[in-house]
Amino acid sequence: GSRQLKAFAKKGNVTGEDAFLLYTTYGFPADLTELMASELNVPVDMPGFEKKMAEFRESTKKKKTTSSQKDMVLKAQECDKLVNGLKITVTDDSAKYDWDTKGDGKEHEAKILAIYDGKDFVQKCSSDTEVCGLVLDRTPLYAEQGGQTFDTASIKTASGVEFTVDDSQKYAGYVLHIGNVSGKGDMKVGDKVTVAVDFARRALVAKNHTATHILNFALRTVLGGKIDQKGSLVDECKLRFDFSHNKPIEIDEMRKIEEICNREIQKANTIHFREVALKKAEAINGLRAVFGEKYPDPVRVVSVGPSIDNLLNDAQTPWGMDASIEFCGGTHVANTSEIYKFVLLIEEGIAKGVRRIVAVTGPQAAVEATLKSLALRVEVDETRTLQGALLDTRIAELRKNVGEDKEVSLIMKKDMLIDIDNLKAGQLQLGKAASKEFEKKAKEDGEQLAKEANGASGKTFVGVVDAGAGSDDAKCIGFAMEVAITECPDKALMFLSNAGGKLAVLAVVPKALQGALSAKAWSTKVLDAVGGKGGGKEDRAQGQTPDGSKLDEALAAAKSYQ
Length: 562
Hints:
Elements: H1 2-9, H2 16-26, H3 30-39, H4 46-61, H5 76-85, E1 108-116, E2 121-122, E3 124-125, E4 132-136, E5 153-157, E6 162-171, E7 174-181, E8 187-188, E9 192-197, H6 199-223, E10 229-234, E11 239-244, H7 251-266, E12 271-276, H8 278-282, E13 299-304, H9 308-313, E14 325-327, E15 342-351, E16 354-361, H10 363-383, H11 388-404, H12 410-455, E17 460-464, H13 473-487, E18 492-497, E19 503-508, H14 519-530, E20 533-536, E21 540-545, H15 551-559
Parallel strand pairs: 17-18
Antiparallel strand pairs: 1-2, 1-4, 1-9, 3-8, 4-7, 5-6, 5-9, 6-7, 10-11, 11-16, 12-13, 13-14, 15-16, 18-19, 19-21, 20-21
Helix pairs in contact: 2-4, 6-7, 10-11, 10-12, 11-12, 12-13, 14-15
């Protein structure tokens, strides 16, 4: 990456395209590119970089392809017409492996042999044709198969007419390039064209595909050799891998799986591949194949690390115990270091005995997933400074936010959920301890207020209970009253408290004073004065208002009752 930056700098500036390549391929964040370029006294086109990133994000978010607007599947009838009617040979797609895995590659010459409009084969297409498919004599595109998504590309005629390929599918050996003419002019059967694959996109797909092989190896290493692949999907945004396992993966196991994947990436292993006679390939010690899958002969062997020659010549070494070795026709990186980083996002059950893992790789996806996780981690850490009801509310919010976010590191998410649970447990413990302290202080206030009431003149006494900030005002005046009515049974008592933030009122009138005094009337008078609500009977009544600042008004109203 540093060498590539210096190569760009020799031109006198780093373009937005250069910075984008450094970011997506070599893992250089834009600020690092700027810093290193400044040391070389070379400017960086940051607006150009941001524009390129915006275009890239928009293209990767686009889920709906043009082919979804029309049925472009070549069924048996259409394939038969290609073979027997039009006498067209199957597409030569061997050039799909001819590219630079860092995100570049040459353009290829081809010829249009057939054009399909979704209903029939036609002689030409234009922007008026909407969606159509081109069959070429040869193609550098990888058509969707084996769990790997399709390539996209641009096809141009010598006269400049351009066809945008949004999808590529393979039917009976024919690769159908699905898309539309994006400008003026016609494309006709027989036209010679130039095909330019979006290799930057393919490089992201390749990172995810090779990482899927490494994940399969890591799963077997951690969970055992009974793990079998049940399906996969790799595109430019993520990788998805389904496998046999009869229970959820434990957090420590997931941590090991992610560690093994990143360790294999950091080893900078070369990816070796070769077509080998099926019988000879199946004899490779430790090779993994999908159960029930029918493979071609010869079959393409893909090895992460060991050379194909070593695999074929040494039948004693259990190669699959130490490396990923599989049959695969997909496109891969040349070296595991190109993957940059592997981050688990999701682990879930999708059927009985089948689990699914979703992960991301590469600088953009992996760094964004980690940064999102770190942002949530900051929120969790900041929550430690809160107390009481505010902490309870924040814990509930965090558990919801962390649990629902599927674009953050799964390992970091699990760790955060454990921390949140510990915060909750700690809050409960602190709550129990604090409640006991509040109760103790309230009863002490009750004793003191009972002494004051016994020494006061008149039939009524009004006092304030202060058990401390964070206390439950209604409960605390209840604790205080329990003590007070035992030690001062002959007077009507009213206690108030606003220490916990609300304003609570409790009135008790002994039997000897009932008729002359009413606890309900007394508390109602006070609550009406402060906008509170309550209820009760002649001997005992209570209520509260959320506005704890109205203590003085409440005291005045309470003392005016006779």
